[in-house]
Amino acid sequence: MDNKYDAVIVGGGVLGTFHAYHALELGLKVCLVDKDAYPRGATTQNFGQVVPSGMDSKWQKFGMESLKIYKEIQSQFDISIRQNGTVYLASNEEEEQLLMELRAINNGNDYISKMLTKQECLANYPGLRKEYVTAGLFFPDEVTVEPRTMIHKLQKYLMDQKGLDIRFDFPVVSCESKEEWVSIQSTTGDAICGKKVIVCNGAEFKNLYPELFATSDLEVSKLQMMQTKPQKNYELKGSILTGWSIRRYEAFHECPSFAGIKEKEPKNSLQKKWGVHILFKQAADGSVILGDSHQYADAHRVEDLGYDLDMDIDNFMIDEARKIIDLPTYQIQNRWYGMYSQCRNSDIFQKTIDHNIHIVTGIGGKGMTGSAGFAKKNITTIFNKQKIKL
Question: Which fold has domain 86-140+218-344?
Fold first, then answer.
């Protein structure tokens, strides 16, 4: 019985880990397996912002639920959550109009936000250039995380306090239904069984079901980000999202003025070519994370994106960031890129095989914000909302 579980979750990123969390909350016996020695994929390579404000109405609800879950866990165990809010900074009248329209939408959704004047923005965010900003929209309930440490702390919490079994270095090579059980085998010949198996990792999905993977509408996005050296005697609170974010994030697509504003944008700019929108977030060590860019390829042609950093993109982002905030230093100590999968025609990829094998992947850039809330709904659906007594 040691190798038999109610739920086996394949993939130790934020989406898989929160599926494990909610399965444990139902009183289930849960095992989380990951192909690597520790989590190191998109969950550890993203910006570390939890911003329901940027999501469309459906995913904003998942994001709001995620905020509650993050804060509840943080109250019991430090997983690096900091509630310091998110601000969107408008640089012209069009972007300011979108902010006012988004605030009206959020008022209807009972999601708190506050318009900031130019003077309030300048007072709240040191170094912000007065020639850039015209107004801001602030979301006080939103949080930041340290992505390179959060997932490790979350998994430690689940192991130590919730009884989660985690098996690293467990690349899954087969997943087969056998009567009421699903047998999962690793490359080393280790085997475990689960009543339900949830595959939350794109690599395992590709290896286990290559034909289904090839016919999916999954694509991969490559994002470049940077980290400055620690800023001396400087504090930048929360997530700072700027005008290009306002023109990009899904939440603004629901604003009445959005389509007309987008239509007037230049079609051949470097910002469009590289999918850049400028974000700032100060990390716990005082450094500032800058980014990011977006380049896309079919999921089965990820090599088309290359495996190097494009310095032209990085230099472009630094030049644009300097026009927005005058940081004490723009010396860069670290550069990296992240890869995440998303769907072209839907918000997430879901497929059930043999009743008890559930593939859930392609959450895209919504992962850090939406996974906790989405996984709660998905787990209760998979297990028919039956709460198991301990």
Answer: D-Amino Acid Oxidase; Chain A, domain 2 (3.30.9)
